[in-house]
Amino acid sequence: MRSDLQEGAALFNAGLWWEAHEAWEGPWMSARGQERQFIQGLILLAAALHKRWHHGSLTSRNFEKALTKLADVPEVYGGINVARLREEVRLALNTEGMHPQIPLPSA
Predict the structure, then answer these.
(1) How far apart are CA 76 and CA 88, in angstroms?
(2) Most CB contacts within 10 A, which of 17, 19, 75, 92?
(3) What is the pLDDT of residues 39-93, one digit of tens each?
(4) Which of 86, 55, 95 is nearest to 68 (CA)?
(5) Which residues partner with 77 through β-bridges?
C-alpha cells in the first residue's frame, strides 16, 4: 500500500471512518486513472460506514457508489484484497461494532 494511504487505513481500521475519508482526500486529488478510482472507492466505503454508525442512516447510497468505483479495480490492488474489503464493509453496514480491516505493512 502506498505510504500516503496508510494513515487513512489506520484510521479506517480503528473505526474512525470520517477521519480516514479526510486522510485519503489529498492522495485522491493527485491520483489518476485506476488509482483514483481505487482511492475514491475507499473514501466512499468509509463514508458509508460513517453515515451508518454515526448518523444512523439506513440508506446505502455511498456503498453503492463505492461498488461502482471499485468495479474495474482488480480484486487485489495495492496489496489490498478489494473483494474481501467490499464484503466486510457490506457485513459491517448491518452489524454494529464490526470494523472491517485494511492490512497495513509491518513496521
Answers:
(1) 14
(2) 17
(3) 999 999 999 999 999 888 888 999 999 999 999 999 999 889 999 999 999 999 9
(4) 86
(5) 80
